[in-house]
Amino acid sequence: MKYVAMIVVGLLLGGVAGYMSWQRMAEIEAVNDAPAYLVLRADLPDAFLEAGSQLRPEHLTSVQIPETGGNLGDYAFPDSAATRQFVTLQPINMRLPRGRILTRDLFEDVAETRLDQVITPGMRALTISVDTKSALNYQVAPGNRVDLIGVRSNLAGSEAEILMEDVKVIAVGDMFSYDEWLASGRDNYSTLTLEMTPQDALALSQATPALDGPVSVVLRSQCDTDAATDPGCL
Fold this sequence. Notes:
Protein name: Flp pilus assembly protein CpaB
InterPro entries: Pilus_assmbl_Flp-typ_CpaB (IPR017592), RcpC_dom (IPR031571)
Strand content: 15-25%
Domain Flp pilus assembly protein RcpC/CpaB: 115-220
Pfam families: RcpC (PF16976)
Strand order of the largest sheet: 5-8-7-6-9
Largest sheet: 5 strands, antiparallel
Number of strands: 9
Radius of gyration: 29 Å
Organism: Loktanella gaetbuli
């Protein structure tokens, strides 16, 4: 009986080892059979390629990625002579870090301005809700400078306070330029997107929940700002 038990245990261990070996071989075969996708080389001298740069053949490598039920092939570039040629024929439209898989959105037409393209480096964008009254009858346009005022209740009643001064408006609704604002009829937006420092964005986000109502927008003269560039401003 002792020898029979040893034989049974040996067979079981052999079966387990065989199954594990088969599973490992299947995993290796899956990797070997996985499609290869184009990637920006991870050993390039620069950590990023800037938007507007054009890829060169020496920028490219590929990596095999097993299919896991997703649709990576719908938006990533499989490695082929045709796709390598395609990605080197036009500039990328956003900053590209080393090692990133090349996806189709990197080469889409960016004729339409994106919000991240109009934010000054180091600054942040924050959106506030507005209506006819708080947006000065929709006379606030992209590029304007504004002050923000809020009303807060206290023991003495209600008190208005200046929340921020000389803030740049970078978008009204989804319009980023004065021409878009004019063409829209100037009365179809419900938000203003403002540019400010990260610290100011945090302070404004913390202040607004305690206000009695929406933030009021106060329009500044184009000359009454630290950022005045109009040659008519003295």
